[in-house]
Amino acid sequence: MSRDLCVHTWPCSYYLELEKRWVPGKLWLTSLSLKFLTDKTGDFLVSFPLADIIEIKKEASNFIFSSVTILEKDHVKHWFSSLQPSRNVVFHIIEHFWRELLLSQPGAAVEASSSTMTKGKELTGLMACSQKRLEDAARVLHYQGEQLDSITSSLDNMESDLDVADRLLKELESPSWWPFNFKLWKMPSDTNSRAGSSMASNKALGKEGIVIRIPAIISQGTESQVKPGRLTILVSGLEIHGPNSLLLHRFEREDVDDIKVHTHYEVSIRQRFIGKPDIAFRLISAKMPQVIPILEMQFSKKIEFLEDALMLRSTGTSSPAEKGYSVWQADPWEAEGSCLGC
Fold first, then answer.
1. Whole domain around residue 80: which residue ranges?
2. Counted domains in the chain
C-alpha cells in the first residue's frame, strides 16, 4: 500500500519563472510530497518531496499579493499565491506535515522514492503496524480495567454507607423511652470504610489516564481561526489544547455526540446542545492515522467514516481530492516564516 496519501488540495496560482507568469491550478499536499496540478493541461507542473524543503515562508509578491514561498535543498524557490481559503491555512498545514515528517520519520522520503520494496519489507511494516495497534488496545483496556476497579470500590463504599444509614434510621425509630435513643455510636468499621472511600476517590481524581497525545491544526466551528495545538485522548474523554498549551475544551466521554472521519488525516468532533450553538472542532494531523483506531475503539457507536475515509479504509489508496477542499477558514495570524534552522 502506498504511503503517499493525499491530504489536501487548494486552488492557487504558481509563478512560472521561465515564462514570467502565474499559472492557475491546484496545490496538492500528500503525506510525503508537495505537487502543483495545472488547470489547463491537467499535468503536474511541480512535484518535490517534503523532506527536500529547507524553508517555508509567508511573503508578498511585488509587495501586493500574499504568497507562500518554499525553498528546496538545491535553492530552487517556489511561489504560490491566490491560495484559498486563505494563505495562513495553507501555510500552517504544510508546515505541520513538513515538521512532523522531519521530526518523526527522517527516512520517509527515501523510502517513498524507492520503487523496489520487497515483500518482506511490506510484511514487516504490516507487523509493526499491527503491533502498534495491539499496544494501543492493551493500553486502553488496562486503563478501563483500572476504572472498573475504581467503580467496584466505590460501589462497596456506597453499600457500607447504606448499611450505616439503615442502622441510624433504626435507632431513630426506636421507642422514646429507650435510654440510648439518640446516642449514635460511631463504629470503627464505618470510619475505616469512609477513609478508604476518600483515599480511593483521591487516587481516581489524581490519575488522568492519558492514552495518546498528538500535535494538530485546530479549527473551531466554521468561522474561527486556524491554530496549531494538540489533541489528547484520555480514558475519560478528550482534551483539545491550543497554542502555549492553552486548554480550549475538554470533552467527557458522554459529552461527545459524534465524531466524523473526513480523511485519513482529518476528523471533526461535536457536542450538541438545545437552545445554544454546538461545540465543534475540526482537527488535521500527520499522526491522525495512529489516533483513528483508538477513537473507533472508545467511541464505536458515535464515530462515522465519510466517503473519502471509507474509500481509504477499503482500498488503501489515496482518494482523489478534486471533489472539494475542506472548509478551513481564514487565520488572521501573521506569523513569521519558519525555516529549518529554527
1. 6-104
2. 2
